[in-house]
Amino acid sequence: MLALMGFLMVIAFMYLIMSKRLSAMTALMLVPLAFGIALGFGPQLGAMSLEGIKKVAPTGIMICFAILYFGVMIDAGLFDPLISRILKAVKGDPMKVVVGTAILAGIVSLDGDGSTTYMITCSAMLAVHRRLGIHPLILPAMAIMQNGVMNILPWGGPTGRVMSALSLEASDVFVPLIPAMVAGTIWVLFVAYRIGLKERARLGTLHLQDTVPGPATANMDKENQILKRPHLFWINLGMTIILMAALVKELLPLNVLFMIGTSLALIINYPKLKDQQARIATHAANALPVIVMVFAAGIFMGIMSGTKMVDAMANSLVSVIPPSMGPHLALITALASLPFTFFLTNDAFYFGVVPILVKTAATYGITPAEIARASLIGQGAHLLSPLVASTYLLVGLCGVEFGDFQKYTLLWAIGTSIVMLALALTIGIIPL
């Protein structure tokens, strides 16, 4: 019953947001509450919700101050030279912009953190996309698809979890998957090229003087030009590089780093208290919708975990595998990782489901490393799950609806996993 209700809850949530009957924020809160009450957990729902909120609170704080920090940097003109160079390089060609966005997202994704990837990619490319009139869903699609491939890096979340759960080394799990990651990246770039060609056909190769100026560009209105701090460019650049290096090195928690960075950015660029308050008020409008979405997701995850629906869903998915398919359990794991990692959290899948699969696979001579590699294939589409907090940051930065974003990107993202699986099977790193 718990498993059935869990699947029904996720399906109901997806239907409500994709059909636009509810916003993602309200659906994340009301749907699990309704199902929790129906299951008889009414008195415990408050504690479950609070536990989920506590878990996402650091992410919410980090997102809040990250949006403020990069908002201040955009106001101060830090990214203007980069945007100008990109515009000159692409010469108004939407196809080059889309492919360049995917390449940039791949490079930034090397730090293994999705939030950082989205913030840097969007800060650098959003104004270019808007200036050329490119469809607003394309930028977040390129960023999340490329980040889905790079999410398999050992210092990323899922690979670290599966290595910990199975006591494996990176040489057992990650290194053999590198060719599959290369194939996944090529697929993302191919998708970017195809989408870019369609945008070029729709928009043409534009002349810069024919385009409408967007935010964070050189040709902005007088009011925004007043906010520019060109004399502080190198200071702002150095501060941002130090911040990114500290993020990668994990010198302090991400939320603390961005709180410190935001404070310094405001004081250095806008020393007057009135100007600081104006910058905070301006960017709070961008930060608030994302933050409330993260905390709403905390309620969703808290109730799923507290009612044990997640555990029941995991066990039921494992139990449907017939014994006759045992010798093909690695392939089954790879295919099942798509819905597993979409409907469950990474913690629930890699710490709950994968060890069960490993024990079953051992009876058929399939090694833990092979199951571990197979379990990571689904990461191509995992980040589109409503349970991934950083995705709400991405849609918030790009100003798009979560449901629209899922519908636009999901099939392309599933294609990433299929391409990676095909190569993995071909070269034998995942056995048939």
From TrEMBL:
Q: Which Pfam families match?
A: CitMHS (PF03600)
Tell me if tRNA-binding is a UniProt keyword of this record.
no
Q: Where is the Citrate transporter-like domain?
A: 13-378
Which InterPro entries does the UniProt record give? Cit_transptr-like_dom, Citrate_transporter
Which cell locations does it reside in? Membrane
Keywords from UniProt, A to Z, are: Membrane, Transmembrane, Transmembrane helix, Transport
Topology versus the membrane, per the UniProt entry? Multi-pass membrane protein
Keyword Membrane assigned: yes
Membrane-traversing stretches: 56-79, 132-153, 173-193, 232-248, 254-271, 283-305, 325-344, 349-367, 379-398, 410-430
Q: Which NCBIfam families does the UniProt entry name for this protein? A: citMHS
The name under which this protein is listed is Citrate transporter
The gene coding this protein: citN
